[in-house]
Amino acid sequence: MTRPTVYITSPLPDAAMRIIASACDYRQWTEDRPVPRDILLRDIATVDGVLARLMDRVDAEFLDAAPGLRVVSNCAVGYDNINVPLLTERGVLACNTPGVLTETTADLAWALIMAAGRRIVEGQETIRQGRWNSSNLMFMTGQDIHGATLGLVGPGRIGSAVIRRAKGFDMNVLYHSRSRHAELEAETGAQYRALDDLLRESDFVVVLVPLSDATRGLFGAREFALMKDSAVFVNVSRGPVVNEMALYEALKQGRPWAAGLDVFEKEPIGPDHPLLTLPNVVAVPHIGSASVQTRTKMATLAATNLVAALTGQPVPAPINPAVLG
Ligand code: GLV
Is 289's C-beta closer than 6 angstroms to any atom of ligand 1? Predict the structure, then answer.
């Protein structure tokens, strides 16, 4: 039997490469920058499978360029980069990496809650720039986290893990989602709120909704105006859920009080992005799942999905299993 051929759009840990190499012939983009579109389209022309990343747009152009394609294995839990209905229509399987990054991403949400709430990055800048010379009792004061109200918008796997951690800080937890989560309420004491009420009542608003037509632009000037002037806004989901210019204006006016951002409308952002001019913004480069352990697990799961789909084994995490028949 001939070995399947795959294309891998980025460098991967050895553990994942061993899984792929054991069953497939492969070509790989090994440079430390996203593969340019023209090279990608050229290199997938004869492949059976692709191991892709969030920055790779898998659309009609991509599918047209790879007529023999049978599987796209996304090395991420989100898959807004993939036109899944179109893949389904063409009989191409899509896979993702759910579960393995839940706790790590929840950790990062908390890092942003704490860094933005307690001005950690601004504090370091203050020292580095030789500006630690205040005798004001209120110098570098932030917002209390313990005992505060956490408002979680989108309590899926990761959101629920963020909520569980709030117990250690004795927080009052509110959540908003399309439907009530009775189990989460029973387990954590989280209370459901309509979005506007959650925004009015929360000290920390954490966003973890997936990107969809329903959530695109969910947070704009109106929503920020509803928040407390002491509120901290944290986005670890997808950038386009937030109107960035509205957030910039709102932060300049001091409502919300600060923001912690892992994701942006267009990634990567450059150093001249307006939000980076604000001292009350903590920004990190989409590193929610970026621990050594978790990125390795994601890569091995993505590799296993890819190989399983091409060798007739059970696929651990298919997005459109109907394609498997
Ligand atoms: C990260 O954002 C992911 O979807 O895995």
Answer: yes
Residue nearest to atom 4 of ligand 1 (CA): 78
- Domain carrying residue 14: 5-99+292-324
The question of whether 238 is a catalytic residue gets the answer yes
Report how far ligand 1's centroid is from the alpha carbon of 168 (Å).
26
Residues 155 and 20 in one domain: no
Q: Is 288 in the pocket of ligand 1 (CB under 6 A)?
A: yes
Looking at the whole model, is its pTM more than 0.90? yes
Question: What beta strand segments (E) does the chain contain?
Answer: 5-8, 25-28, 49-52, 71-74, 93-95, 149-153, 172-176, 191-192, 204-207, 232-235, 258-261, 281-283
Q: Is 267 a catalytic residue?
A: yes
Cα distances (Å, whole numbers) of residue 47 to 27, 50, 56, 156, 214: 9, 7, 16, 34, 34
d(CA 94, CA 10) in angstroms, rounded, equals 18
Residues 82-138: tens digit of each pLDDT: 999 999 999 999 999 999 999 999 999 999 999 999 999 999 999 999 999 999 999
Q: How many CA atoms lie within 13 A of 270 on its CB side?
A: 1
Same structural domain, 154 and 42: no
pLDDT confidence of 325, banded at 50, 70, 90?
Answer: confident
Residue tagged active-site, from 70, 181, 286, 295: 286
pLDDT value for 42: 98
Model pLDDT for residues 239-255, shown as the tens digit of each residue: 999 999 999 999 999 99
Report whether residue 78 contacts ligand 1, using a CB cutoff of 6 Å. yes
Structural contact between residues 173 and 185, judged by C-beta atoms closer than 8 angstroms:
no
Please indicate whether residue 31 is annotated as part of the active site. Answer: no
Whether 98 is in the pocket of ligand 1, judged by its Cβ within 6 Å, is: no
Distance CA 265, CA 249 (A): 16
Which CATH number belongs to the domain containing residue 81 in this structure?
3.40.50.720
Distance 77 CA to ligand 1 centre (A): 5
What is the domain count for the chain?
2
* Residues 165, 250 share a domain: yes
Ligand 1 atom nearest the C-alpha of 96 is 5
